[in-house]
Amino acid sequence: MEAENGGLRHDWTAEEVGAIFGQPFMDLIFQAQTVHRANFDPNRIQVSKLISIKTGSCPEDCSYCPQSAHYATGLEKEKLMAVEEVVEAAAQAKAEGASRFCMGAAWRGPKGDDFEVAVAMIEGVKALGMETCATFGLLDKWQASRLKEAGLDYYNHNIDTSPEHYGEVITTRTFQDRLDTLDVVRDAGLHVCSGGIIGLGETTTDRVKMLLTLANMPKHPDSVPINLLIPIAGTPLADAEKPDAFDFIRTIATARIIMPKSFVRLSAGREGMSEEMQTLCFLAGANSIFCGQKLLTAKNAAPGQDKSLFGRLGLSPM
Ligand code: SAM
Ligand code: DTB
Ligand code: SF4
User: Fold this and answer.
1) Within its chain, how far is the Cα of 289 from the centroid?
2) Is the distance from the beta carbon of residue 64 to the nearest atom of ligand 1 less than 6 Å?
3) Contact present, 203 and 242 (Cβ < 8 Å)
4) Tell me: the pLDDT tens digits for 17-40?
5) 10 Å Cβ neighbour count for 26?
6) Whose CA is nearest to atom 15 of ligand 2?
7) How many angstroms does the Cα of residue 250 sit away from the middle of ligand 3?
């Protein structure tokens, strides 16, 4: 095993990652919790709040997404929000305990005047003293450095699944397009947030290859969101088979072990997850969540539920 960059590895093989993922469940959780404790306070969770600054009518055909114009999902589309409205929502999220405010837009990538409005939103949120995150789709080099200048801390762009399964899920942009965006984001000095979705009809090997792709990037993403597919009526994945809960937890644990210093986010799909299931995800090394009742368009957590769970588990927000 070659260790570099302070012990962080970027040369994982599919066999190694598959062996971690597939070991007996108790051994996997013990290993993940051991790695977690060596790198983080196990009783603290980073909390982010999402907002959709521009909703629906997206030209991309991501087959899981309620916002794609390719599918009749019944979603009410909304035009770009006003800067003041977004900054006000951020101030409210801060008062509710969120340390990071993440702005999402249903774009293939930002363009023209809309991009400048989004930049003003980032400046406004940053001025509140919050960490800022954006997810605007594909970026070029100039756009990434403009966002950095504006005070952006994190850029989210998911690889979603393995390179092999990707073409089954999205056809309007390639896996390589996504990697190129992540490269410009990293090169601009922004923190990278990148992960994927479990429940897209992928195999265990696909899950392993997705995690391997993330871990073998030049630098591990600072934040790794693991989403459980929220099935959306009208999308091609509306009736996708629900993944086994233990396989979802295995994915989180494996991410924790191979990217030991990254935040692993228990991301979409908490709505409807039992408190015990979420607790197992935390035990497996997840240490970040989205707070609030809404993600971008879908439901997140019932009011008061997170506060109650944190209280009962002795967890506190970072
Ligand atoms: N349009 C931008 C993009 O695709 O990069 C940003 C917003 S997009 C909604 C951000 C991420 O949300 C997607 O990459 C996907 O991983 C996740 N996502 C979208 N719909 C989802 C669903 N139904 N269930 C789980 N995750 C979902
Ligand atoms: C991520 O990995 N998950 C978030 C965030 N990054 C942008 C988005 C989840 C979206 C769930 C569907 C919705 O709310 O529309
Ligand atoms: Fe558009 Fe992003 Fe949804 Fe894909 S995931 S359809 S790019 S909003």
Assistant:
1) 9
2) yes
3) no
4) 999 999 999 999 999 999 999 999
5) 8
6) 297
7) 26
List, in order, residues 6 or more apart from 214 with CB less than 8 Å away: 159, 194, 195, 196, 220, 221, 224, 255, 259
Q: Report CA(157)–ligand 1 centroid distance (Å).
A: 9
Catalytic residue numbers, as ranges? 58, 62, 65, 102, 133, 193, 265
Q: What is the pLDDT of residues 167-202, one digit of tens each?
A: 999 999 999 999 999 999 999 999 999 999 999 999
Beta strands in the chain (DSSP E): 44-54, 100-105, 131-135, 154-156, 191-193, 196-198, 223-228, 263-266, 288-290, 316-317
Strands (E), 93-145: 100-105, 131-135
Q: For a pocket test of ligand 2, which of 289, 295, 299, 300 has the largest count of ligand atoms closer than 8 A to its C-beta?
A: 295
Class of residue 225 by CB neighbours under 10 A (exposed 0-12, middle 13-18, buried 19+) = buried
